[in-house]
Structures
1.
Amino acid sequence: MTGRLIFRRYEEFAVRAASDLGMPLVDSIDEAKSGWGLRRLSRSAFEKLEERARTDHDFGQRWLNRLQIGYDREKSQMAIKIEDIFADVPCRTDVNCDGHEDAA
């Protein structure tokens, strides 16, 4: 698999993730303007990661899994993390308003 093919797959992954999450795809943290944004890697940054993947086998496996088959798993893990963040936030779910509270 060539570097160009891998970079194209990464770009497709980033575009799909941004679309599904409803977040803008930005080239730098500054572009997010204190809001949410999914940072896109430049080709040179991507090539640095590719080089690291060649020298660090564990990192390389995790990275390839994420690019090849991990999108749905990644999305579900993000959903779990978001649920964990809001798990302690009480919300009222009873329409009779009897004071019963459940997690968000």
2.
Amino acid sequence: MLIGQDFEKIEFELFGWELLEPNAFIGDTILAFLAFFLAFRLRKITKKHNFYRYWFLFFICFGLGFFIGGLGHLFWNYWGVEGKYFSWYSGLFSSLFVEHAMISIHQKKRERRVFETISRLKFVYAFLALTFLIMTRDFTTDVSAGLVIPSINSTIGMVLAIGILPFYYQRNLKMRFHYFWMSLIVLLPISFLQHLKINFAQWMDRNDISHILLLIALLLYFAGIAVYRRTASTKLS
């Protein structure tokens, strides 16, 4: 077990290609296909309400981000830091879609618009800040630094979207939102794993543990959506 530093990246050769981190690629690919599957399950109801449409967009964006992010791990020797950019930006969009999904069911139109404006402004600031860093900083010596802005942006957004708002809705709409709370609790350890660099083994490092927690969170999101669909169809407007 290593804390504060990472194990050496796993290297292997396939068809003449010098590849890295097969464990990260496998984890990212599993997450991507799960996200695509959940989006497929939602596709028929996206027109019923923005709640479903934004969750559909989240799963698609999340899946694309992790699939290409997995390729970025695998082809690091060829793509370099540039192979990480897409997944960094997709993280900003994914957070935006979750925020708007949960905001869309707010019953007070004025407050809903205020939250939507705040969410969009946060996204714009994060997008510009990330772009500025990419243009001015060399990430080759510390790739994880590129995750700082997406991580901060997602943390703020998720606390609002799947923490504070579900608590408010449960009290005012008299409905169950416990799966969203549970997903937030599941996601909390990821920040500590990543920033403290807690690695259990070379084949089960901080990224692999984070993938497992993210997989559980995706399933909890979908469970929360399913519960809401069963109990709140008459409340959507």
